[in-house]
Here is the input.
Amino acid sequence: MSASTVPDLPGDSELVESYLGGDQGSAAELVRRHSAAMGRFLYSAGAAPDDVDDLVQESLFRAFRALGGWRRTASFRSWLFSIAGNLLRDEFRRRKGRQVIALEDREIPDRADPHGELAASDMEERVRAGVSRLPRLQREVFLLRAHEGAGYDEIAAALGTTPGAARVHYHHAVKRLKELVR
Amino acid sequence: MTACERLSDRIPEVVRGRSRWTPEESAHLAGCPNCRAEWDLLVAVDRVAARAPAPRDPSALAATVLRRVADHRRSRLGSLGRWTVGVAAAAGIAAAVWTGVNRGNPASDPVAVAATVDIALPELEPMETAELDSLLEAMEAIPSPAPAGWSALGEPTLGDLDADELEQVLGTWEG
Here is the structure.
């Protein structure tokens, strides 16, 4: 699921312990491992492109401020995603409602099938808008599974639900989103 | 578990390139519009993720995050320190009032208390001021066993007595 599974590298848990013991380099390694995935998660969940950097930074700040809250029943990355998800929910609330994701203005690529490219791009934007409008748990379960390939046990541990409920949330999300890509 | 459910469980790992379809799964996917739609959806989600803005330099990001965490801790320690000083000051004031340590405070000065508090002692009313002064001086000179614990707080004075205790002492003195 992440670099933490590579045997030659210290695991996330070891890096967290090392950071808590005073090694700042361990924190830098954790940021290096997970910040890009957090950006993809936040962007896919509906964060505006210009906000992604700030949201990643704020999520990491909250995470490092409360490392004791990581219970290790879920992976460190899933835990980070749950923090990012909370932050994004707060951001949506602060803006009094879900962000309306407009289709981005894009130039038609100079390719053999420009119409096909544009159609694919439109579909991706519709998917992103659809994901952002899902109920929070459905959205986070769906993205943890779709992006990270996380199992339902892992997702349940990260989001404080049960594996059965996580499976139901995933299938509800898929059902709603499939309508967008037909 | 149906063939569609089994395929659904496998789609994320195949989309992410962690696994490949078996021939049976490929055949099912080709003939099942529902599974095909789910596959298309997950492929689109994967492409959305690929379009996410490029992340900031991780080293700079880590430095910023750690600086913020350090600032936050300093701020919390400062708040905790101010809170501790506040509580300690409040406790000190309470102790000073309770033990009468602050002798300069009129509220703990026996003379000032006697001048402001109306203590009902009818036996003293017919006495002249000079007689009262004499009486008080004589009372101050009476040796008495200190109750347990008083020694730790210093020698008790008449100012430490409440109205009932003072009346009792006077009664003893008058015989």
